[in-house]
Amino acid sequence: MKKIAVIGAGTMGNGIAHIFAQSGHDVSLIDVNEEALKKAISTIERNLDRQLTKNKITIAEVKSALQHIKTFTEMSEGVKGADLVIEAATENGDIKAKIFKTLDEVTDPSTILASNTSSISITKIAAGTSRPDKVIGMHFFNPVPVMKLVEVIRGYCTSDEVTASIMDITQKLGKVAVEVNDYPGFTSNRILMPMINEAIYTLHEGVAGVQEIDTVMKLGMAHPMGPLQLADFVGLDVCLAICNVLYEGFGNPKYAPCPLLVNMVTAGKMGKKSGEGFYDYSGGGKDLVVSKSFAQ
Ligand code: 3HC
Questions:
Q1: Across 155-288, where does the E strand assignment appear?
Q2: What tens-digit pLDDT sequence spans the chain (296 residues)?
Q3: Mean pLDDT score of the chain, rounded to an integer?
Q4: Rounded CA gap, 228 and 222, in Å?
Q5: Pick the CATH number of 3-181 from 3.90.320.10, 3.10.20.90, 3.40.50.720, 3.90.79.10
Q6: Full-prediction pTM beyond 0.85?
Q7: C-alpha 12 – ligand 1 centre gap (Å)
Q8: What's the half-sphere exposure (Cβ side, CA atoms, 13 Å) at 212?
Q9: Where in the chain is the domain with CATH 3.40.50.720?
Q10: For the CA atoms of the chain, what is the radius of gyration?
Q11: What lines the ligand 1 site, CB under 6 Å?
């Protein structure tokens, strides 16, 4: 696979473009928003520079990676000749369905169509195309250049051949590919989100404060971030959406999102990206300050 197209220039999309370009693939980064594309390129430059400063890559590799990325606002232009398209657009089922319908029409019938969805059913996305055997999940983790895992999700109709080639290309990127089946939350979020939701319940019920909960999990369980900081980092709206997928998908009350999470999202407190969640990021997030008392 030589040419890769990435749909969506947000945090995940620019990270995915970054790692494919760094490993020598021609990458088309596609977004309807020209400004988002400019911002994505400057983020990729900044992150490559970070790797350069740490002596992880050379200046020649930085230049080569940047030369391998072209940006497009028109999807049909950007996906021309692509062997693999990875969709990393907004986590919204209707938007993804529209994108896959268009991709099915404008790409070569042999092109593999992957989604970086964190929770939407791959089987459902695939069912809206004429090639469900060539639709697969490639779930990357944020920050993409740092996190080793790619969860490879087989939809009900995904072929063995397509799964094998996605496992192979993922490993060639220097990532670890883990194959899982398509059920709500896949494997990663089926385990991660109940932990985050339980941490929010622990706060909501006044068992412990924000910093206390995060410190317990960081120092007691050796997690790099506590669950509340991680929720802010992922986005509280994304956490809520995934909790709802689990709740609706399994029909089990144990997955019901905590009312505090629902309230915070309704109030526009989405975590780091909105400037406030469990912590206040108005100072740039360097010194984490608990955003409010959360007193019961
Ligand atoms: N690009 C390139 N390198 C980056 C980077 C980026 N975007 N962000 C961080 N780095 C590098 C740094 O340069 C540094 O490199 P070094 O080890 O060579 O010094 C290293 O990563 C660590 O970064 P920092 O020193 O700045 O900061 P930390 O030590 O606090 O690490 C972190 C930051 C890697 C984000 C760490 O806190 C962490 O692992 N957090 C948990 C992340 C996590 O769980 N992600 C998954 C979220 S869930 C998800 O994405 C799935 C979804 O479906 C919900």
A1: 176-181, 279-280
A2: 999 999 999 999 999 999 999 999 999 999 999 999 999 999 999 999 999 999 999 999 999 999 999 999 999 999 999 999 999 999 899 999 999 999 999 999 999 999 999 999 999 999 999 999 999 999 999 999 999 999 999 999 999 999 999 999 999 999 999 999 999 999 999 999 999 999 999 999 999 999 999 999 999 999 999 999 999 999 999 999 999 999 999 999 999 999 999 999 999 999 999 999 999 998 887 788 999 878 65
A3: 96
A4: 15
A5: 3.40.50.720
A6: yes
A7: 13
A8: 9
A9: 3-181
A10: 19
A11: 47, 50-51, 54, 118, 141-143, 145-147, 189, 224-225, 230, 234
Name the segment(s) of the chain with CATH classification 1.10.1040.10.
189-286
Closest CA to 69 of 29, 33, 11: 29
Q: What is d(CA 51, CA 60) in angstroms, rounded to the nearest whole number?
A: 12
Q: Which of these is catalytic: 115, 118, 121, 197?
A: 118
* H or E segment to which residue 12 belongs: helix 11-22
* Active-site pick, 47, 91, 115, 151: 151
Ligand 1 pocket mutation pick from 11, 16, 50 by most atoms within 8 angstroms of CB: 50
Q: How far apart are CA 65 and CA 51, in angstroms?
A: 12
Q: What angle do CA 229, 89, 233 make, to 5 degrees?
A: 5
The count of C-alpha atoms lying within 13 angstroms of the C-alpha of 162, restricted to the half-sphere facing its C-beta, is 24
**189-286, CATH topology level:** N-(1-d-carboxylethyl)-l-norvaline Dehydrogenase; domain 2 (1.10.1040)
Write the burial class of residue 286 (CB in 10 Å: 0-12 exposed, 13-18 middle, 19+ buried).
Answer: exposed
